[in-house]
Specification:
The chain is mainly α. The chain has one domain. Helix content is 83%, strand content 0%. Helix 2 packs antiparallel against helix 5 and helix 3 packs antiparallel against helix 4. The longest helix has 32 residues. The chain is globular, with a radius of gyration of 17 Å. This is Sensor of ECF-type sigma factor.
């Protein structure tokens, strides 16, 4: 799951044009909107919260990639490796805490069933995006 999310969130780093990034984001919004069947009132409350959540999650994934990709060449001792592993675990915990926090915020705007559909829609979108990236 972590690798899949890093692959999806690193789309910007792969030299994608702004137009491609916008199309990807539009496709994600369409899938989520369709799956959640948001009312206009829910949509107004949901999207600002979701966009904030997504940005924070991307930042965590960026930090994880930096630790894994940038430090691996510098690592020489078991202590350094253990420190890197601990940093990654701490970031995973930070992501879990973020998910718990935002789940509570989502539940103030959408139903529990819609929150589950959100997670399913994100997974569907990520799987579709990974398949498209593999085809290139």
């Amino acid at each position: 799951m972590f690798i899949a999310l890093c692959s999806v969130t690193s789309v910007r780093a792969q030299g994608r044009s702004e137009d491609e990034i916008k199309r990807i984001q539009d496709a994600k919004v369409a899938i989520i909107t369709n799956r959640l069947n948001l009312t206009p009132e829910q949509s107004t409350g949901f999207w600002p919260i979701y966009n904030e959540y997504s940005q924070k999650r991307r930042e965590i994934h960026r930090e994880q990639r930096m630790i894994i990709n940038n430090k691996k060449a510098l690592v020489k001792t078991d202590n350094q490796v253990m420190n890197n592993l601990k940093e990654v675990q701490d970031l995973r915990q930070k992501e879990l805490d973020l998910e718990k926090e935002y789940q509570g915020r989502f539940l103030k705007v959408i139903s529990a069933s819609q929150v589950i559909e959100l997670y399913k829609a994100e997974r569907t979108f990520n799987d579709m995006l990974i398949q498209r990236l593999k085809q290139r």
